[in-house]
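Exercise 7.
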Amino acid sequence: MSKPFRLGVIFTHPTQHHSPLWRRLAQEPSLKVKVLYLSNQNVVQGSGDPELGAKEPWDVDLLSGYDYEFMKDLNGKVSPKVKSSTLALDLGLQLTRENFDALWLSSFVSWSHRYAFFLCKMRGIPIISQIDATVMSETGYYSLWYKTFLSIVYPFLFRLTDYWLTIGNHNEIYLRHYGVDETKMTPAPYPFDRIRFQTAIEQNPEKVIEIRRQFQWNDETILYGFAAKFIDRKRPLDFIDAIALAHRKNPNIRGMLIGGGEMDSLVDKRLSELNGEVVKVGFVNQSQLPYYYAAMDVFVCPSKIDSHPLVVSEAMAAGTPVILSDRCGNWGYSDILQHRYNGLVYPCGNLDKLAEAMLELADRKTREIYSHRAKEVAKTQDLEQTATVVMQVIERIKLTKK
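Solution. The predicted structure, written as tokens, is:
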């Protein structure tokens, strides 16, 4: 019997989206997976997402079913927060050809990632990368000096990466922008655990009904949802203001805000100026999110900088049509949101256009059509599809070694 292929993974911290992928890949009999985490954020008490204002860790299983190790920073301790300054020198002992046949390198954001890249190139370990960045996501996000730095470093790192798993049309454009050869690109969805969402909803319909009962005004209420950090680039105030505009033309329209963060006080102030058209739910942990998505009639993602927000995929797995800002990277002819097929795209920051989109999806028949299509497209964009592509890339690596 041949030895299993040894895949190493360098990842910032355990997440609700990628941990299920590592667990799924670990089930492959021909594959041995080990994940090297640079932080234990999300899994220890007090280490929830700081931008979300959450102090509790995620309440879904992030660590079982696969081999992992938390790497220590220069201070000899595991970092409780994701930091770009993290440098795990022990990677020098871990990343050898005796330990790994290939390495999944999810980012170049920290010094640990760059150190791992250097080690792999020096030791002949093939690199598989998947990042969600788009040209749009860099606009207005980085300072001029940092953009200059990226324009020098990224082409070097990106071109020397051996295999790229591309996430949708805008991500492909981004990689071409930095000089990645087409032959290195293989389309692969940004992974999310679609089965968990759909199973939870199917097994607990009463929870969805209870949320609807709590937040709808009457049987005719059309509930629009927002779920994100309350930070400027996510534009929660756009959601509130557009709901207010749409509500004036259709009194059945109502909004529900899930999340929290540095703009909490601004959100509260804006809500206080309304008459209950929008309600703030606050932080909702991972195990309960599927029911909230299913309770929504429409999900809205108004971000001005957001590479490929997975809340869009999660909402669609629940059968919820999405209204998406054109500054997000989820839309395209082969991405998860296809304009006027399973959702709508509008110009970011244009409240009138956002309100118009809300009014358009107030039509029940349109929502039903988009809802069915959303679930069908979500099936092609989940972690099962990503795992299939990863195994195909691994077969390509094996062939190069023969």
